[in-house]
Amino acid sequence: MTVLRDGALLRLTLQRPARRNSLSWPMTDALVKTLTEAASDDTLRAIHIRGAGDDFCAGADWVTTNAGDRRPRTGDLVRRVPHAGHRVIELVQTIQLPVVCSVRGWAVGLGCNLALAADFTVAADDAVFWEPFLARGFSPDSGATWLLPRLVGLARARRMLLLGEQITGGSAQDWGLIHQAVAPADVDTATEELLATLTCGPTVAIGLTKQALHHGLHTTLPQAMTQELFNLELSCRTSDFKEGLAAFAQRRPPDFTGR
């Protein structure tokens, strides 16, 4: 994986095109470490995740993981996965920065769920989203059974998880699975336009809104509104709040600094 700091934007590229950017344990560990550090970096305003070459990510690299004669101890997955693939999904969901994925080619398993966990995913209309777990003989992980029903409902979640149906980028947009599907040649342009909007936004308020959206999935309406009040109290103390009011009064676009 390559990590590039581009002003207030953090660009992460899954760099293993010969294996469709499937994630080895070291790559997943590096992704966890990078996202954890980004979560406390006050100079960042957005994160972009993409795959090198023709594909986004073919999921966890089980072939490499299970190569060799040495058999891991019983319970290896239970010990390791919560700190690896599962932790990646948790971080993308909970980090108080907007996360954008751009998807070409295959987004499979963990790679598919990474794209679904992002705040915004821009995909080529011929990209393929696939949850192949049962086709490989094991049950889903990395948040698939949580993400899919919430995004597309139980019926379509069953189609993807129980039947292994492959979904194109165009269908993913129609289903509400992703933010936008565009022609393959337009993926970079559409992604950069979105990133430009997000990196110029009120970063604290964006992060608090993201937090409230996820909090609201598990609570009652009164509990959600209570959380909104606490977030409102925080966001009203930012410089961006003052700038937003001034811009409104002066009838001009706001110049947010992310503070």
TrEMBL record:
It comes from the Bacteria. Gene3D superfamilies: 2-enoyl-CoA Hydratase, Chain A, domain 1, Lyase 2-enoyl-coa Hydratase, Chain A, domain 2. Signal peptide: none annotated. Pfam families: ECH_1. InterPro entries: ClpP/crotonase-like_dom_sf, Enoyl-CoA_hydra/iso, Enoyl-CoA_hydra_C. GO terms for molecular function: catalytic activity. Belongs to the enoyl-CoA hydratase/isomerase family. This is Enoyl-CoA hydratase. It comes from Mycolicibacter hiberniae. The lineage of its organism: Bacteria, Bacillati, Actinomycetota, Actinomycetes, Mycobacteriales.
